[in-house]
């Protein structure tokens, strides 16, 4: 069944998309939607469109089973990072996410996976003991701390984080009011290289193969998983983002982590 599944990925050219692409192409029939196009896929599976323009999206969604929405502005691959301007994040992260969900609903797609972010809770890192867990300098590490699960109070400290929370609630709305299943994947630190950098990344890193595994498990989750939020983070010794829920619901079994 997995081999026959038609998967549409928005933002495949981005850092996360490139980290996921080999595993997705090995398992599914992948098509891509982006503003500039994608190399290495048959022409009939490459669609150029702006996710802020709903009408332009429809051809890409025909015959699609699952959509993986990675397109956004303000993440690690953006020129200004999380300091991108409000206008571009409104267009790409809020209007674009709505358009992807609405077009998926109209096309009869069964599930949309939205790339959310650790930016939804970055404010915890301003508080003890979490500030010590992500410190870039020498500190006395705490012996224990409360983990932050998917239903802890959000604490965004950037407009980017706010837009990702908005996307999660848009997904909840569509899951409650339409046949769509919507899964939000809070992706932690995933960089251009498949390794954890110094300092903060020791706590929030997710390896490529752990992210690939969890994304596949989201794509293939039972239909009863109508709506959910999962932390995409490896088993890091200093992690404060709790991946227990993904382990219990999806059978996520991280293979990596900074010890």
Structure description:
This protein has 259 residues and is an alpha/beta fold. The protein has a single domain, classed as NAD(P)-binding Rossmann-like Domain (Rossmann fold, 3-Layer(aba) Sandwich). Helices cover 34% and strands 15% of the residues. The chain has eight helices and seven strands. Strands 3-2-1-4-5-6-7 form a seven-stranded parallel beta sheet, sandwiched between helices. α3 (86-107) runs parallel beside α5. The longest helix has 22 residues, at 86-107. The radius of gyration is 18 Å and the shape is globular. The termini are far apart. The model has no long low-confidence stretch (mean pLDDT 94).
């Amino acid at each position: 069944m997995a081999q026959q599944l038609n998967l549409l990925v928005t933002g495949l050219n981005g850092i996360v998309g490139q980290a996921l692409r080999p595993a997705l192409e090995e398992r599914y029939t992948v098509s891509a939607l982006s503003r500039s196009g994608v190399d290495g896929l048959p022409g009939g599976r490459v669609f150029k469109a702006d996710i802020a323009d709903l009408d332009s999206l429809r051809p890409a969604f025909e015959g699609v089973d699952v959509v993986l929405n990675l397109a956004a502005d303000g993440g690690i691959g953006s020129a200004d990072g999380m300091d991108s301007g409000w206008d571009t994040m409104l267009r790409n992260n809020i209007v674009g996410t709505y358009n992807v969900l609405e077009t998926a609903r109209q096309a009869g797609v069964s599930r949309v996976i939205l790339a959310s972010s650790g930016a939804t809770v970055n404010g915890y890192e301003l508080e003890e003991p979490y500030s010590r867990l992500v410190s870039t300098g020498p500190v006395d590490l705490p012996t224990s701390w409360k983990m932050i699960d998917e239903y802890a109070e959000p604490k965004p400290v950037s407009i980017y984080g706010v837009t990702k929370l908005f996307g999660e609630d848009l997904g909840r709305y569509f899951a409650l009011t339409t046949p769509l299943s919507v899964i939000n994947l809070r992706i932690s630190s995933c960089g251009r290289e498949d390794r954890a950098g110094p300092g903060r990344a020791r706590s929030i890193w997710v390896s490529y193969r752990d992210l690939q595994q969890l994304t596949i498990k989201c794509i293939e989750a039972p239909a009863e998983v109508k709506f959910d939020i999962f932390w995409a983070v490896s088993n890091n010794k200093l992690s404060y983002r709790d991946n227990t829920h993904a382990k219990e619901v999806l059978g996520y079994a991280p293979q990596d982590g900074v010890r």
